[in-house]
């Protein structure tokens, strides 16, 4: 009986020791995964915005007051089809406007498509269907330079314990 009690006490001590090591390791792994998810989310959002901006026409690009929204022309049918070019001239066939907007209440960066025009509206279009480019965005700023656009994006994990800040400059490829 004594051996059984001693054995159980030793087992309890070993289990408590393993628990003391294992739980912090699990918390660290979870935190690392959240940080990686934020980093991946920011990178994907920037990649999606970069494609739209690189394919746009600088003369039809509008950064709206406050810098939290941008409108740009696209040669993609329905804003997501194949990039279309005029066969005779080799120039893009502008088909729609893309608006990238930070929705403050939800913290999302949204991409709206307006196929009614190929010139930017006085205010960004924020009605109708949209695609979420990033979530948990604390700040998004577009700055129009002479021949490029600078984007500052700041995103946090849902728990707020990890942040990612990125600044990128895009130069449209088409004229």
Could you explain how this protein is built, in words?
- This protein is of the alpha+beta class.
- It has one domain.
- It has 1 helix and 8 strands; from the N terminus they run αββββββββ.
- It has one helix spanning 2-54, and strands at 62-63, 69-74, 96-103, 108-114, 130-134, 137-144, 149-156, 163-170.
- A hairpin with a 5-residue loop joins strand 1 (62-63) and strand 2.
- The longest helix has 53 residues, at 2-54.
Topology:
Layout: H1 2-54, E1 62-63, E2 69-74, E3 96-103, E4 108-114, E5 130-134, E6 137-144, E7 149-156, E8 163-170
Antiparallel strand pairs: 1-2, 2-3, 3-4, 4-5, 6-7, 7-8
Largest sheet: 5 strands, antiparallel
**Strand-residue proportion:** 25-35%
Number of structural units classed as domains: 1
Q: Multimeric state of these chains?
A: single chain
What general form does the structure show?
elongated
Q: How many H/I helical runs?
A: 1
Spatial order of the strands in the main sheet?
1-2-3-4-5
**Span between N and C termini?**
88 Å
Radius of gyration: 25 Å
pLDDT < 50 runs, ≥5 residues: none
Helix content: 25-40%
Instruction: List the helices and strands in order.
Output: HEEEEEEEE
């Amino acid at each position: 009986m004594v051996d059984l009690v001693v054995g159980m006490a030793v087992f309890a001590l070993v289990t408590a020791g393993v628990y003391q090591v294992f739980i912090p390791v699990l918390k660290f792994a979870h935190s690392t995964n959240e940080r990686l998810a934020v980093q991946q989310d920011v990178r994907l959002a920037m990649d999606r915005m970069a494609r739209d901006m690189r394919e746009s026409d600088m003369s039809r690009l509008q950064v709206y007051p406050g810098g939290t929204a941008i409108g740009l022309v696209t040669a993609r049918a329905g804003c997501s089809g194949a990039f279309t070019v005029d066969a005779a001239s080799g120039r893009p066939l502008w088909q729609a406007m893309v608006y990238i907007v930070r929705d403050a209440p939800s913290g999302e960066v949204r991409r709206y498509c307006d196929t009614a025009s190929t010139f930017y509206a006085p205010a960004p279009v924020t009605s109708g269907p949209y695609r979420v480019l990033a979530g948990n965005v604390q700040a998004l700023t577009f700055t129009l330079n002479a021949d490029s656009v600078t984007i500052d994006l700041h995103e946090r994990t849902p728990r707020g314990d990890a942040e990612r800040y990125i600044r990128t400059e895009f130069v449209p490829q088409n004229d």
